[in-house]
Amino acid sequence: MLKNFILLIMVLVGVAFFTLMERKVLGYIQCRKGPNKVGVLGIFQPFSDAVKLFGKEFYFLETSNMIYFYLGPVLMIPLSLLLWILLPYSDGVLDLKYGILFFFICSGMGIFSLMLVGWGSNSKFSLLGSYRGVAQMISYEVSFMFIILGLLMISNSYLLIDILIYQEILWFFLGNLILLTMWLIVCMAELNRTPFDFAEGESELVSGFNVEFMGGGFAIIFMSEYSSIMMISTFSIIMFFGSFELNFMILSLLLMVLVLWVRGSFPRFRYDKLMLLAWKFMLSGCLVVLMVNCSLECYISWNS
């Protein structure tokens, strides 16, 4: 319990500084400074924002469904934080034999919380945003699982620590560079990040699925989103670079910066193109790579 509590506190503090890093990176991309007034270099800006948001009065809409309106954000943050206990620390927080399957279950459950947020608000903008988000996450969840399945066929294990041990010989990304590229695109879509941020399309949906949330409710949704970004970045390094040491932290930080860099550099995609990309290109590409990996594994097993 103590390990889980310390891990939870560290992740939440990391989320706070990750939001500061995003604002700084986007600021320099757009030739401005970003937050630099609250503390040295704006170091206390995330905590100032947290006090402001959680100190606001929480209004409840008469037309919304109170149960679903509160249940959506309450489900979001535990599901995003629950994934962190799977990481293969030195002594382990939760050593699951089928850790990858647990990761699939928790990441897939996030669809329900997104649906509850949009449905419970009883607003056409929130509902349309949740429709988009759910359809997008379900579409890319298929490719998401097939990519990991292609790596699992090489490692022959669902345990993250076994995947790390297997990559002591050779990193997975060296023979799967195309798969890594597809993985990064799929992760952007799964996380509803630019250029696939249709669930929060300000140009046509005001603010998307969270338009009726303010104060603490908005802060919880915000924290769960950034916690998921940090988790997926960490998980990607484990699956493709097989490292959990100092260079692991550097690679994870670089991948997080890449996510922010994409946001500051690319415009929003078109929704029909998003679905075309998912079902026509990503899925077929993942299946081809999966069959190639399966054939290689069968060939190696037959010769050995």
Explain this structure.
The chain is built from eleven helices and no strands. With 304 residues, it is mainly alpha-helical. The chain has one domain. The protein starts with a helix and ends with a helix.
Task: List the defining traits of the structure above.
304 residues; mainly alpha; globular; transport
Uncertain stretches: none
Main pleated-sheet profile: none
Helical percentage? over 70%
User: What series of H and E elements makes up the topology?
Assistant: HHHHHHHHHHH
Q: So what's the overall shape?
A: globular
EC number: 7.1.1.2
GO biological process, one term: aerobic respiration
Transmembrane segments: 67-87, 99-120, 140-161, 168-185, 235-261, 281-302
Main location: mitochondrion
Provide a brief overview of the structure.
This protein has helices spanning 2-29, 45-54, 66-82, 99-121, 124-155, 160-166, 177-190, 202-205, 216-241, 246-265, 271-303. By secondary structure, the protein is mainly alpha-helical.
